[in-house]
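Can you give me the bound-state structure? Components:
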Amino acid sequence: MIALDVNNPSCLIDARELSFQLYDVLDVETLTRRAWFADHDRTTFDSALEMARKLAEERFRPHHRKSDLEEPRVVDGRVRLIPEIAAAINDFASSGLLAAHHGYAAGGMQLPWVVAQACYAHFHAANVATFAYCFLTIAAANLLDAFGSAEQKQRYMRPMLSGRFLGTMCLSEPQAGSSLADIRTRATPLGGSRYRITGSKMWISGGEHELSENIVHLVLARTDGAPPGVKGISLFLVTRRRLRPDGGPGELNDVVLGGLNHKMGYRGTINTALNFGERGDCIGELVGEPHRGLAYMFHMMNEARIVVGMSAAALGLAGFRVSLDYARQRPQGRLPQAKDPSAPPVMIIKHADVRRLLLEQKAYAEGALALGLYCARLLDEQKTVEETSARERAGALLDVLTPIMKAWSSEWCLRANSNAIQVLGGYGYTRDFPVEQYYRDNRLNPIHEGTNGIQAIDLLGRKASMNDGQAVRTVATTMRVDIEAANALSAVAAHAAQLDRALALLQDTTATVAAARARLGDALPLSNATSYLDLFGHVVIAWMWLRQATAAATRIQNGAPGLRDFYLGKLHTARFFFRHELPRVEHCAKLVAGLDDTCLTMQDTWF
Amino acid sequence: MIALDVNNPSCLIDARELSFQLYDVLDVETLTRRAWFADHDRTTFDSALEMARKLAEERFRPHHRKSDLEEPRVVDGRVRLIPEIAAAINDFASSGLLAAHHGYAAGGMQLPWVVAQACYAHFHAANVATFAYCFLTIAAANLLDAFGSAEQKQRYMRPMLSGRFLGTMCLSEPQAGSSLADIRTRATPLGGSRYRITGSKMWISGGEHELSENIVHLVLARTDGAPPGVKGISLFLVTRRRLRPDGGPGELNDVVLGGLNHKMGYRGTINTALNFGERGDCIGELVGEPHRGLAYMFHMMNEARIVVGMSAAALGLAGFRVSLDYARQRPQGRLPQAKDPSAPPVMIIKHADVRRLLLEQKAYAEGALALGLYCARLLDEQKTVEETSARERAGALLDVLTPIMKAWSSEWCLRANSNAIQVLGGYGYTRDFPVEQYYRDNRLNPIHEGTNGIQAIDLLGRKASMNDGQAVRTVATTMRVDIEAANALSAVAAHAAQLDRALALLQDTTATVAAARARLGDALPLSNATSYLDLFGHVVIAWMWLRQATAAATRIQNGAPGLRDFYLGKLHTARFFFRHELPRVEHCAKLVAGLDDTCLTMQDTWF
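Here's the bound-state model for the whole set.
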């Protein structure tokens, strides 16, 4: 057995990496000039990051494997989870991180969302399954914060922010996974905002447990007589236990566990089929206005999609770090130019192909992390910038970047995890090392919160054409500002020129599809949506690498005491992405702009 | 839960597919004109295939999930496996399939190797872990057949062909996974062919069990005073139990189980650390001549590498078939051109992106299958063709195609399995369906029998340059014969022209690397070996699709009663490969021929 300490508590996410992204690339310190963040400075941010790292390493990471081996199960009708999960969630709640970005009035820390997301990256990397209970609760609380009544915020959101109640989102049904237009769960009015809820939901993470006093389910359902399709969907808040007048948990609310889904990854996150109102006795509360449920839920879904991408990125970083440590410690083989069999073997990091496996991981995972934090920074912009135009700009960027963050990151960071296995060779596929579990955990990310195919259709079918292509133009304009800045730096000017060409190709391709849709309808132009997402995704990640390379080159110019190697690594990885990855976009663009009909014209009977 | 019968016994490998490959593409009936195969005809081939299909479906497939859930374990010092494994192996042996290609004199069926491989595909697809015990035995017996003494064949090979003894290959050691030059296991002469064996081996599949009377380990070791590196390695036959004078199993031979490796896939195949001669009492027999062990073992390894590729292909086919059945039965969503929410949802196979996920699977898995059977056909050629030049040609083709079959198939058929999960959505990652297990099983294939990085170095560093590039020229000449034939058929002429250009690019790239090695040494030119394998692999699989398309177009011209849709599917999948996949080679060629130094120049300290 290899003597690699996989529980080395400092190894999963390099602290330099998060600092680089936040301060060098995103310049988040400027946020502290805004009134909402005025109490903060780099010291308070760093304290939060260090607290998160320590908590993640000490309380989440140690049961990563155990929660995989000992899945949630039902004993005598009650859900049993390993006790470490409740303990970790409890500590997370006590730390205040559930309310990190909420205002002081709500018991929060009033941290920027981007800093909170950087903190959360440590938890995704340490134990994505246990952290899922937390981030589902954070997302559900955000939804109530945005659309709930004052009373709902007081009765439900506040206990969620302190961890007394945990949250879920209940969208899918057994007959309708991605197709929300077809959901059948019904809501019958009982007067006021109270409704009787009846129906079955599927794939509900965190759907049943006794980790907390109560569970707050956010449930999509149809009111009687609602119009068909997505325009007839309303949002309801349904608790596992009804609330007593004092707000404490009372009697059960007829939300019944239908069964557990046994997954290949994320095993510590209980995943359930739930039956609402089997006995006709499940009471829910309407959230916001009737028939606006899908719009509300998309507020949560969009956040959740970015979080899925962040989870993929963090798993990519974790696998990268473990395989990097391994490659530095494992002697094997000799270099091509030194074949003397009596010479000692070299550490495998000396082999060019192992470096490729590591560079790909670094390029994908740090690229995805950069995009995820960029998106989080945009959410802070939407929330705290004064000018309407800047808010609208942030919104347009998020419209386009959200499906890319979800789909690109989950696709390519899964490949990163596969590379981590490959670096470890046979050890990589054994359960003595965590990389095979990262790979299994990460395999869920291209599916949940909307499959990557759905993201591609969302990007090409909706986002690329909305407001006559305004959102894509906003992305291009924003990207060109960074290209201009990079043009002035000799270390990155060639990358800037290459990105400029790729961006032009993307814009031409987008225009070609728009014209084709007007001429031919949607079927053919949208049939290569995934290739469009591949194209757009690689352009956006190249942009993220240009931004990182620009920041690194600037820091090197300014001296960079102690971090020179780190910055040189950033520059070299950017070079890797521009040479090895970005050229792939040409083929994608050809398929999309050429309106290739191979997928569309394949016939069922020919398979 | 979805009502898909995943145990539908006819679904894993389409019988039409194997018939098409054997008869339409490879024309294996012509082999029956050779004396060795004279007793055979299509009827006997089809009987063997049908017998294999039935046995695989009825005796191997039913415990595929169980053998994953209930891994091999050690109880009171003895290995415990679920009983279905022994029962299946026993039935396999009774069927004669262990000796399928051996001569009648050895108790075999004298079937062509290519037909035997087609039979085995059913077992890989049904239960790759249980079948591993069989194919390791087949490979070990082949090695003894080629290099063992008459007595060794009688005493060891014959009981292996009947399943009384099972076989293993013992190469890797804990400190030397892929680097055989560094193995330390020692062999001390005891007189005659007997040696005392001492050392530790790692990753030994089938290394310890009581499935059979005995286990025959083929072990690489160094004799005292042997030269360093691979030139000092000899091959030894070491049994778990010593043989009694009557050939039956006698006392234990000091081969001690050091531990089990717990893997993410292939879980039913016990994988062990073995200690030889802990008490100084392990006796082995030299096979062949001293110091030629690695050459002998490569005979087995080359076969095993093709088998790994076949296993990857068969797992790809199995996932394809399950996800195809699912896509035909699962209603969800509506087409882009018909968004009326009150219209019923369509089967998901109607969605273009689902067709892409299926087309990719079909293109990768059937392409890999075609190459694996092509290689098997070449082995038959080596064995039975009379002309020396034809044998040499087959050998040269195999030299190049073996690392491609191993690495390309395991890389791309793993992607196929990922697509199968994606088609099933959330169901895909649950253990209610087999696709997540195919994906886990298949993840071992890019690593075992030499990592794909090793295959790439073998291809570019050795095979592309041996005999001044003769092997690559032989591949090109052979490919051009098929290109010429395709030029004459309008349905495939455009593909032929595209392949011709890709082949020229491959040859130019190969020449550029050869010139660079002469000028610069090996380090830089070999540093993009994986991109060269990607390039060569896609060209070879495009060739395989051209051959399939040519066969299909010819059959359609000739009427093709009853199989028209099947052949149209072949033509359309070829079109998919040529449009969506083959163009990827341009980027690979640029990296290789441009001597991109990004991987080579990355520094350890920059990570």
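A couple of observations. Chain B touches chain A through 105 residues (CB under 8 Å). The first strand of chain B starts at residue 73 and ends at 75.
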